[in-house]
């Protein structure tokens, strides 16, 4: 059996493409693989930043994203996830942030500086206050660089 559905997996040790997927999964549900050339066994998370983490990658990414996006304290995040039944310490959050924040920042910079030399879409928002059916409402418009309406709400 090959590694996944059309997904080409290479050995993390020797780089060989002669990799087979094992029928069992890790305790967290990650697929396991074995290299036919060197015999090394590994999973989807092996050789990654979160290889030895106790929690699923999506939970860790969400914690770090909330920490950076909403400027929550380490202890607040611990309490928020404790209410959802996920227990970890604020030291764990600090470690995850130290590992993932530089990578997230790099990815965001890559997206901000458009790839391939294409010009970025520039737009601005303007707002007005209108009376609609006797009620005052705010209307927001997104307008692109050419003055064309992008969206209203």
From TrEMBL:
InterPro entries: DDE_dom (IPR032874), IS_Transposase (IPR052183). Residues 122-151 form the DDE domain. It comes from the Bacteria. Pfam families: DDE_Tnp_IS240. This is IS6 family transposase.
């Amino acid at each position: 059996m090959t590694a996944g559905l059309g997904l080409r997996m290479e050995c993390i040790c020797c780089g060989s493409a002669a990799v087979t997927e094992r029928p069992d999964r890790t305790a967290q549900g990650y697929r396991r693989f074995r290299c036919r050339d060197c015999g090394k066994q590994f999973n989807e998370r092996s050789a990654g930043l979160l290889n030895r983490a106790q929690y699923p990658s999506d939970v860790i990414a969400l914690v770090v994203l909330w920490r950076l996006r909403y400027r929550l304290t380490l202890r607040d995040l611990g309490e928020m996830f404790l209410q959802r039944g996920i227990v970890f310490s604020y030291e764990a959050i600090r470690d995850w942030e130290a590992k993932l924040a530089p990578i997230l920042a790099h990815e965001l910079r890559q997206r901000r500086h458009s790839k391939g030399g294409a010009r970025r879409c520039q737009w601005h928002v303007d707002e007005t206050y209108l009376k609609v059916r006797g009620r005052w409402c705010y209307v927001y418009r997104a307008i692109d660089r050419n003055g064309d309406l992008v969206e209203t709400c």
